[in-house]
Each structure stands twice: as structure tokens, then as C-alpha cells.
Automatic annotation (TrEMBL):
Organism: Pedobacter terrae
Designated name of the protein: Acetyl esterase/lipase
Signal sequence coordinates: 1-23
PROSITE patterns documented for this protein: PROKAR_LIPOPROTEIN
Keywords for this protein: Hydrolase, Signal
Length: 372
């Protein structure tokens, strides 16, 4: 994914984008101070061609983003090395470019950001910490895990989601840059995810957070990590999150489900990419049956209340549905919501995609209720 920590890039959040220069030590955000209405935005987002064969129900705004992503002409991710795949454009790039083309700018961020490196077994990982500018605290605390199949992406690519959580929930968010595969094979990302959660609990007071009000949130691979953090906390008899939000999580290993078959050629995630991610992260494909990857085979009893978000046009749609059913069967309180006409990665696209704006508001509502 295209990122450069030494050069300014535009981040988007909620109904906003933010121009931010980031370093590993301090990370701050500034923005322009004008707004754009939903009606103006939607009028500007008209698809050029017909709906794709793999997504006949796709919403116009979502299709425009996919068209923009396709226009970059990147080689298929599954044909590349991990190093080269990380140079491909991300959906984030398409959103940012569309916003620039349509002169879409928005209000000032209501959070400050800072970077922190922490020690983990075998190395270090980076955390980006979002702190609300208003309120004296202590604030609720959210540990957030980005997506990317355990192989690509980073906290920059998923800045929009983390920042939206901080702003809409009024929480401190710790976004975790866990180590990526194939340089770091399974279960490195899982162990890093739990180490970051432990760090967050131990340092909550210093962060001006309430250690009794902690939740985990993750997208895609990060959704898998967030669920595993809850499981590990239960097994190790340390404080459980009060809630977990799993957004189109990787939850099982069968790539012949109905949604995998129906959306095998979807964008920005397809079946071939999922196979590529799996091969890159796991030491052998047999490990795909490990309950840390196939969450539907894990012991899910005693986990915190859970919100699961799925996208209609997504190979991982059925993963989320199956996991919700397994959690309910294990006695876990689950709220599951599917969003029609959108694809994998839609959650962070709220400046352009109404369903993303609605999903962020729904997740914020669930988290605030849990924190009460």
C-alpha cells in the first residue's frame, strides 16, 4: 500500500479528511475549514461504466471508488511479492484522490495523535495513539487492529477508521502496527496484538484512559486479531474487553463458502488475494485450521459482547455470519449488521459512502453503550 511516513498524506475520518505529516515520535493533524453536504458529494460521484459483473448491486458511490482504484493500473496483488504488493494503491488512495478531485474538505480533527514504540517478544512494534481534544478524561480506551491480510497495509492506510472511533466514541484509541508476514510468520501478528492490549491496560492511567472501560476493534485480519485478543485475555485470566467490534473479520479457512464463490472476483478483495494472504502468513496451509485463524472452531464461551459488521459484496461476508452464529451458540451477546451494496474495506470510506457513515455511527453507538 502506498505510504510514506516522512511526507504529508491526506487522511479521512467520519465526514472529514485530514492533512497530516507523521513520524514515529509525534503525529499531528490539521485540516482545511470548509464543509460539503451529502447531496453535493453524491451528485459528484457518478460511475463511468456499468456495475461490475461481480457486484451488480453495488452502490454508485462505492462503484466510483472501485473504478478509481482500477484506474491506477496496479498489477494483481496475488502476482506480486509482499514488498511489491505493499506499493500498490490502497482503497484509501482512491478515496483521497476522489476527494481532491471534487474539492472535498472538512472540519478540523477533534483528536491529537502521538506515536509510541513498545517492546514485544522478538522486537518492537509501533502504536499510534489518538486522544480526544475535549474532556479531561479519563476516557474509554479502544485498542484497534488494522486489516491487510496480515501482510500489507499499516496504521496510515487505516487511519480513517481509528480516528473515527476516537472522535465519535470520545475514546482514546491505540492503533497497533503489528509485524507483517512473510517476514514475520504466524503467530507473530497474534502475539503482537495481545502484547499491545496488555500494554494498553498497564498504561491506561498514563494515557488518561479508564482501564475499566477497554474495548477491542479490528477490520478484516484485524477483526481476527481483536477476537483472538479477547480469547487470550480470557485464557490468561486478565481483564477482558467490555466489548469487541469485528468488522468483516477473517473467521474461517473454507474458501468455498457462498460468498467466496459469489464474490470470487470482487474488488478490492477477492478469493485469489485471500489465498495469497494465507500462504504468506502461515508456515503451512495446515495452520489454516488452527482455531486462531478459524475462529469458528475456537472456544468462544465467556467472550465479551460483540458487534459484527459485514459487507454484502465481500468474500468474507459469510465468515462474519458464521462467526456471529457460533458466538451466539456459545452464549455471547451479539449484534450483527450487514450493509448492502458495499464491498470489503467500506468502513473507512464515510466521506464518500453513506453506508460507511452509517456503520461508523452504529459501531460508535454500540461501543458507547458498552462503556456505560
Amino acid at each position: 500500500m502506498k505510504t510514506n511516513l516522512l511526507k504529508p498524506i491526506i487522511f479521512f475520518c467520519g465526514t472529514a479528511i485530514f492533512l497530516s505529516a507523521c513520524t514515529s515520535e509525534t503525529e499531528k493533524s490539521t485540516t482545511a475549514d470548509s464543509t460539503i453536504t451529502d447531496s453535493t458529494r453524491n451528485a459528484a460521484l457518478k460511475p463511468v461504466g456499468p456495475a461490475p459483473e461481480w457486484g451488480k448491486t453495488i452502490k454508485p458511490e462505492m462503484q466510483v471508488i472501485i473504478e478509481k482504484l482500477s484506474s491506477y493500473g496496479d498489477k494483481p496483488l496475488e502476482t506480486l511479492s509482499a514488498t511489491d504488493a505493499r506499493k500498490n494503491h490502497a482503497p484509501t488512495d482512491a478515496v483521497m484522490d476522489l476527494m481532491k478531485q471534487n474539492n472535498m474538505v472538512v472540519p478540523v480533527a477533534t483528536v491529537d495523535t502521538a506515536g509510541r514504540d513498545i517492546d514485544v517478544e522478538g522486537g518492537k512494534i509501533h502504536l499510534r495513539i489518538y486522544t480526544p481534544k475535549t474532556g479531561s478524561g479519563p476516557h474509554p480506551l479502544i485498542v484497534y487492529y488494522h486489516g491487510g491480510g496480515f501482510v500489507i497495509a499499516n496504521v496510515d492506510v487505516y487511519n480513517a477508521s481509528a480516528q473515527a472511533l476516537a472522535e465519535q466514541v470520545g475514546a482514546i484509541v491505540v492503533s497497533v502496527a503489528y509485524r507483517l508476514a512473510p517476514e514475520n510468520k504466524f503467530p507473530t501478528a497474534h502475539n503482537d496484538a495481545f502484547a499491545a492490549y496488555e500494554w494498553a491496560i498497564k498504561n491506561a492511567v498514563d494515557l488518561k484512559a479508564d482501564p475499566a472501560k477497554i474495548a477491542v476493534v479490528g477490520e478484516s485480519a484485524g477483526g481476527n486479531l481483536a477476537a483472538n485478543v479477547s480469547i487470550m485475555a480470557r485464557n490468561k485470566h486478565i481483564m477482558l474487553p467490555v466489548h469487541e467490534v469485528l468488522i468483516y473479520p477473517i473467521a474461517q479457512a473454507d474458501m468455498n463458502t457462498e460468498s467466496y464463490t459469489m464474490y470470487a472476483n470482487a474488488k478490492p478483495l477477492n478469493k485469489a488475494m485471500m489465498n495469497w494472504f494465507t500462504e504468506k502468513y502461515l508456515n503451512s496451509m495446515i495452520e489454516a485450521q488452527d482455531s486462531r485463524i478459524s475462529l469458528i472452531n475456537a472456544d468462544l464461551k465467556g467472550l465479551p459482547s460483540t458487534t459484527i459488521i459485514t459487507a454484502e459484496i465481500d468474500p468474507l461476508h459469510d465468515d462474519g455470519v458464521m462467526l456471529a452464529a457460533k458466538l451466539k451458540a456459545a452464549g455471547v451477546k451479539v449484534n450483527a449488521k450487514n450493509y448492502e451494496g458495499v464491498t470489503h474495506e467500506f468502513f473507512g470510506m464515510s466521506p464518500l459512502v453513506p453506508e460507511a457513515k452509517a456503520a461508523q455511527a452504529y459501531v460508535a453507538e454500540q461501543l458507547k453503550a458498552a462503556f456505560k
